[in-house]
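Quick question, first post here. What does this chain look like in 3D?
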Amino acid sequence: MALTLDAQGNLSGQVREEHGGYAGLEVREKLQQLGEKKYVTELAAHHPGWEVANYAFAKQSAVDQSLGLTYEWRQPAATATTATELYLNPLSYFGEQRNPFQHEDRNYPVDIGMMQQDIIRVTLTLPPGYVAELPKSVSLALPNNGGRYLYSATSPTPGTVQLMSRLTFDKPVYSAVEYGALRELYRLLLAKQAEAVVIKKAG
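> Answer (accepted):
Ran it through. Tokens below.
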């Protein structure tokens, strides 16, 4: 997704989602139940402050391909005044909202159905005269080659920030012994996505 930040803290841009495999099946089923307009309305309603417009779906009938959704997105700032310092965590807007592994332990395997990969990429354009302080990049691995979480934050050119979050599950089933590692990986993922990019005036 490509987002632009202004000096008041308003965020806007275009978002492109792709849902393949089981995720694509779930979205297609929900689209059949709700229709496109209500689906997008519910998407925005789950995120207070979101404004979504000019949406378009692609490959709804091509079940062997990833379902696509593009839309224009806006998140207004809390105030209309120019800020000297802004704190943003855009990955938390579009990523996981809670840890799916709520219990401290588990006595039976975790079946996620298939190997999975979830990637979020954000390119953020800063307002003129502002610079960014970035969180540290991390790489976390599950035991037994079970998967990995990668997070990177870079500034490829002055005035732009690129964030990437990639969660990979390399097995369809995890043993009860591996449950604790799955739970901890999600805890660290949520904490990392919640870390703020600090945007401040240069100089």
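The longest helix spans residues 179-194.
The first strand starts at residue 2 and ends at 5.
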